[in-house]
Amino acid sequence: MGAGAHVKALVKKRLKTTAVVVVGLGAAYGALATLSLLAHPKTSGACRFAASEIADGGTVEPRNLNVEAGERTSLGFGRSSGIKILPVTLKLDKELDGAPPGQGVRLRVRASDLRRGSDDARIGVQWSDPEPSTPPPAGSGEQATPASRDPIAVRAIAEGTRVTLDVCVARTDDFRTDPGTYTGTVTFNDRRVNDLVVPITVSLSYRKPFNVAILFLPLVVVGTWWVWTIKKNVDPDLGVFTETAHKAFWGWVFTVGGVSSIASGLVGAFATFGATYLRSEAWGGSAWDWFSLFGAMFAAFVAAATVARSVGSKRANGGE
Q: Which of 175, 218, 277, 318 makes a 20 to 30 Å CA pair with 79?
């Protein structure tokens, strides 16, 4: 075979191998994208509490109001979506003057925007108890109601000396809410109680795990190549795109040792994927999360695959 024919055959072989790899990665990407769409149907909805009259006329003595010890003031969505309500229990030192026996009394509260760190991401407050978004027409006799498209709303009800503060947060497709940890406050501005500011924290994680799992595609390619290059019997001066390297790499990949090394690497990478992303309440708040996750998965893949390869080599050589 002439030199030209040899080069032509080599190029054809490499193109065929490259095409197979590209088609395989493309099919895997398409499968993950489809699963992502199927696993996360669109959601809709908003926070809304029914409007009610707040009667606080006359002279009243402000009551001391404090958050109950041990009360949780954080709401974690994780990867879930929908509408969640965080109940916070507070305590009055005395019952409110003129409160009807056995009935709840609405208190004035107002929520701030929930902001993520020092950037511009926020969960905005379009309506906050008890101000209506749109007053009813004069003389219509209609009751004022809040807006129906609010990502956050709050209300506080006093029953005896117990006050329940409800903080509603909507994470639906009606609102664009980036993942991360958001902080804000709810302020009691009712003259029947002392001024009180309650800190609120809401944690959101990136909610499409199949999109994040796309990181496994470049991980397998890069990680497998790296594990192969650090084998003891690989010539460090070997050209990456030479026929010798091509044959040696794919020859190793489809050996028992190669398959077991890759499988072990994937197990280690998935364990890191689960611990870093799946169990996080606020993953994805910055682009750095993606890079750090890939780096941690790569390190776990290489470490696990290298151990498996070393064990396999020792057994093959008759070692203990």
A: 218
